[in-house]
Design a protein that fits this description.
The protein is an alpha/beta fold. It has 16 helices and 19 strands. The strands form 4 sheets. Strands 1, 2, 3, 4, 5, 16, 17, 18 and 19 form a 9-stranded mixed beta sheet that branches. A 4-stranded parallel beta sheet has the order 6-7-8-9, with helices on both faces. A 4-stranded parallel beta sheet has the order 10-11-12-13, sandwiched between helices. Helix 3 (99-115) packs parallel to helix 4 and helix 13 crosses helix 15. The radius of gyration is 21 Å and the shape is globular. The mean pLDDT is 96. It binds zinc ion (ZN). The site of zinc ion (ZN) has 6 residues, from loops.
Length: 459
C-alpha cells in the first residue's frame, strides 16, 4: 500500500521547500517519490504546522551504557577522574547484567532515541559472554537481545559485532573484560555469520567492529578487513580516543593507530573511525585518501574528557563526519551536531567554521544536518539520510509551532534546528514507513521505563 504525507515544509537537497510531499510504500518500507503537492493531494495526510526531514542516523551507540547515566558524575579521594576511571565504573555496572536486563536497557535507550528523531542506530556491540565470561549456548544471545529490543522499539539497527581479544595493546584481558572476549577469530566469524542468518526483519543488518587497536591484534585487523570487504560489510573501530591509546600503539607497533589501520588494510570507503580525537595532519590525509568516515561523539567526548575532534581539518580535507551518542550521557543528535561546530569555535575563537556553500554564504546548518543524516547513512551502508525515491521511508516531523522555533523562516529553520532547538521539537517518527512516535509519544515508553527502573532497582 502506498501512503502520502504533505507537510508545510520538506527537507530537500540541503534546504526546506514548501509545496512538496512524499509518497512511500508500506510493503517495501521505501520512498516511492517526492512530488509537488498537487500531484499527491488525493488521499494524502496533511501534516499541518509540521516540517518533514529524513530521520537522524546515530552511527555509534553502546545501548547498555544508558544504565550508568548520572551515576559517574563524581569522584572519590583519587586525585583525578578521567576516561580510564569512568571505564572502570562502566565495567563494574555491566558485570551482572542478564540477557533480560540487556534487552530492557536497550529497549528504553532505543525508544529515547526515536523520541529525539533518531531512526537508525549503529550499535557497537561488545558484550558477548555471561557474567562468568562463558559463551552463552547461542554465542549471539546478547546481540540477538539487543536486536530484539531494536525491533520491538521500531528503530532500524546495524549491529556492529565487536571482536575483543586483548586488555590493552598486546596485553591479556583483565578479569572485568571477560564478558567481551571473542577468543579466536574463527569462532567470532562463525557467530557473526550465524547472526547475519538470524536477522530477518529487514530493519536489522550486521557490520563488523574490531573494538580498537587496544583490543585486537594486528593479524585480526587484517583478517577482518578482508572479510568485511569480501562480504560487503561496513567496518567500524574506536580510534585514538585517548592519548594513552596512541602512546601504547606507538610503543607496540612503532605507528600511530590510523597508520596501523592503513598498514593493515583496514582503511576504505566502508570504514568508520570512531572518535579520532587524537590524530595528526598526516592521519587526516590517510583517512581522506582512503575515503573513510569519522564518527564524532562530542557529547561523550566532552563528558569523558577525551579531547576535541579536529573537525575543521577533516571537513577541509573532505573526510565525512558522522555522529554518535556513544555512552548515552545525552541522547540528542541535534546536540551532537552543534557540539562539533561549537567545540571548534571554542578552540579557534572564530565562528561559522564547518559550512556548506549556499549562494554567496557559507552556511553552518546544512553541513551539520548532513553529518546527522547523509554521512550517517554512508557510514552504515544504508539507502537513508535523504528524502528521495528508493531511500528507506525513515522520517521525522518537526513541530513548527514549538516555542523554541518561534520566529523561524524557511531560511533560518535549518539553523534553528541544528544550533538551537531541543529534540522535543520532534513530534512524529516513521521507520520503514511505520509510524513509531506519534504526537511525541512512543506507545511502549511507559512499560519500557518501568522495566528499565526494575533493572536498576535490582542492582
Ligand atoms: Zn564507543
Amino acid at each position: 500500500m502506498s501512503l502520502r504525507l504533505i507537510p508545510d515544509l520538506l527537507w530537500l537537497d540541503g534546504r526546506f521547500v514548501a509545496g512538496q510531499g512524499v509518497e512511500y510504500d508500506t510493503a517495501t518500507g521505501r520512498i516511492v517519490r517526492i512530488a509537488p503537492e498537487a500531484e499527491l493531494a488525493a488521499k494524502a495526510v496533511r501534516l499541518r504546522e509540521r516540517a518533514l526531514m529524513p530521520g537522524l542516523i546515530n552511527v555509534h551507540s553502546h545501548a547498555f551504557q544508558r544504565l550508568i547515566r548520572g551515576r559517574t558524575q563524581w569522584r572519590g579521594s583519587e586525585p583525578a577522574s578521567d576516561f580510564w576511571s569512568w571505564r572502570d565504573a562502566m565495567y563494574a555496572a555491566l558485570q551482572q547484567l542478564s540477557p533480560d536486563d540487556i534487552y530492557a536497557a536497550s529497549r528504553l535507550c532505543f525508544i529515547e532515541m526515536l523520541r529525539s528523531g533518531i531512526t537508525t542506530v549503529g550499535e557497537f556491540h561488545y558484550l558477548h559472554n555471561d557474567p562468568d565470561g562463558k559463551p552463552y549456548a547461542n554465542r549471539a544471545e546478547l546481540a540477538l537481545r539487543v536486536v530484539a529490543a531494536a525491533n520491538d522499539a521500531g528503530i532500524r539497527i546495524v549491529l556492529l559485532n565487536s571482536a575483543y581479544a586483548t586488555g590493552g595493546v598486546r596485553e591479556p584481558l583483565r578479569p572485568e573484560q571477560r564478558r567481551f572476549e571473542t577468543p579466536d577469530i574463527a569462532s567470532f566469524l562463525t557467530t557473526t555469520e550465524s547472526l547475519r542468518a538470524q536477522l530477518t526483519s529487514g530493519t536489522a543488518t550486521v557490520g563488523l567492529a574490531p573494538h580498537s587497536v587496544r583490543a585486537v591484534p594486528r593479524s585480526w585487523l587484517e583478517e577482518l578487513a578482508v572479510y568485511a570487504r569480501d562480504e560487503g560489510l561496513v567496518l567500524h573501530t574506536h580510534v585514538s580516543e585517548q592519548q594513552g591509546e596512541v602512546d601504547a600503539c606507538k610503543r607496540a607497533y612503532g605507528r600511530r593507530p590510523v597508520e596501523l589501520l592503513e598498514d593493515s588494510g583496514v582503511l576504505s570507503p566502508t570504514f568508520t573511525g570512531v572518535h579520532c580525537t587524537h590524530i595528526t595532519a598526516e592521519e587526516v590525509v590517510l583517512l581522506r585518501t582512503s575515503g573513510a568516515t569519522v564518527a564524532a561523539c562530542p557529547g561523550t567526548e566532552r563528558d569523558l574528557g577525551d579531547g576535541i575532534l579536529s573537525a575543521s581539518a577533516l571537513v577541509q580535507a573532505g573526510v565525512p563526519i558522522a555522529l554518535g551518542t556513544d555512552s548515552q550521557t545525552v541522547i540528542d543528535l541535534w546536540e551532537e551536531m552543534r557540539l562539533v561546530e561549537y567545540h571548534e569555535r571554542l578552540r579557534s575563537e572564530r565562528r561559522a567554521l564547518l559550512t556548506t556553500r549556499v549562494g554567496d554564504r557559507h552556511e553552518v546548518a546544512p553541513a551539520l544536518i548532513d553529518m546527522g543524516t547523509v554521512a550517517g547513512a554512508r557510514s552504515l551502508g544504508l539507502d537513508a539520510g535523504r528524502l528521495s525515491a528508493g531511500s528507506v521511508a525513515d522520517f521525522v516531523a518537526i513541530d513548527l509551532g514549538h516555542i523554541a522555533l518561534a520566529g523561524y523562516t524557511v531560511d533560518t529553520l535549518p539553523a534553528c534546528l541544528a544550533l538551537s532547538a531541543p529534540a522535543a521539537v520532534v513530534t512524529d517518527v516513521w521507520v520503514g514507513g511505520v509510524q513509531r512516535v506519534a504526537d511525541s509519544v512512543h506507545a511502549d515508553e511507559e512499560t519500557a521505563m518501568q522495566a528499565f527502573a526494575g533493572v536498576l532497582a535490582a542492582k
